[in-house]
Every structure is written in C-alpha cells, then in structure tokens.
Design a protein that fits this description.
Layout (H helix, E strand, L loop, with lengths): L1 H14 L3 H5 L1 H5 L3 E10 L2 E10 L9 E7 L5 H15 L4 H14 L8 E7 L2 E6 L2 E6 L2 H12 L6 H7 L6
Antiparallel strand pairs: 1-2, 2-3, 3-4, 4-5, 5-6
Helix pairs in contact: 4-5, 4-6
Length: about 170
C-alpha cells in the first residue's frame, strides 16, 4: 500500500506546474503586449523609467506587468513607504490595511541602484515582484494588487503625465 501511495503522489507532482515556471518572469510576460513607457521625476531628478505590459484592449485589467528601471540609488524601505503614501492618497485602503501591506512591501523591496529593475506582475490572485528578473516576493491578495498598481494606473494618480504615457495604446 505504501508503494502505491508513493507512486500516486509522484504522478500527481508531474501535473503541478514546475517551481521554475512559477518563479520566472519571462513566462508571466508571455502573451502580454508592451503598452507605454515614461519617466518619473521627483524635484526635477529622474527616479525611474516605467514600462507597462498588458493583455487585450484594457491595460488596467490583469494580467499586466509594470517594470521600473531605476536611475538613482534608493532604499527598499523608502520604496515601500512611498508606495504606502501613494495608496493612502488614493483613499482605497484603511490605515490598518496600509500597515499590513507596508510591512510586506518592506520585506520584499530591495535597495536599488541605477539600472536595477523591479517588475511587478498583477495577476487576478495578487502580485509578484521581480528584481533584475529574479522573484523577490509575492502578495496573494487581489485587493493589494489593485491598490498597488493604482499608484500608476488610477485616474487620481499623483503622476498623471506618466499614467497617460503608460496607457498609450501600442501603435497609436
């Protein structure tokens, strides 16, 4: 009986997606089309260049990905704090939720240097984050994913020019 259970378990493992496929960025971007790109500046200084990839005609509907190529040294904690501040300004989460999300982002986001890239992938079940194409963490919470990507894609964003460039339809 034990041998049979072992063989059934091994057969079941073959049906699961490989760990490599679920932790790599490239498969998550396949099927997505590059939309717009733009720059984010703070006090005149270039902070990062952003690029949006999306599927279909609605670039705000998951799955989508947003890549930020940094142009300055930034601490991961400052990236997390800025993200919380932007979500707070959009008024789409309460303070208790922001505290939980902020702590999780502080765990995930690394310090970055010029030309480092963080890509966030918005999936229906949550978000995955990659630093220089290596998985650094995920948040399995659809509400978090909607709030996080709203930083750039919501009509009330603090960077409306960047939003307009990101949402520019390919070929237009």
């Amino acid at each position: 009986m034990q041998r049979r259970d072992f063989l059934l378990a091994c057969a079941g493992l073959a049906l699961l997606p490989s760990a490599q496929a679920t932790t790599r960025l490239e498969p998550l971007l396949s099927g997505l089309q590059r939309w717009g790109t733009g720059e984010f500046r703070r006090w005149g200084f270039l902070v990062y260049e952003a690029t949006l990839w999306a599927k279909g005609d609605d670039p705000q509907k998951p799955p989508l990905a947003l890549g930020l190529t940094y142009k300055r040294n930034l601490e991961g904690l400052k990236i997390a704090d800025a993200s919380v501040s932007e979500i707070r300004n959009l008024k789409i989460a309460d303070e208790a939720q922001l505290k939980v999300w902020g702590a999780r982002m502080a765990e995930i986001f690394p310090d970055v240097k010029p030309e480092d890239r963080i890509v966030g992938v918005h999936l229906p079940e949550g978000a995955r984050f990659f630093h220089n194409d290596r998985l650094i963490g995920s948040v399995d919470d659809p509400a978090f994913a909607r709030a996080f990507f709203a930083i750039w894609l919501d009509a009330r964003t603090s960077a409306p020019e960047l939003r307009a460039r990101l949402l520019k339809k390919p070929g237009s």
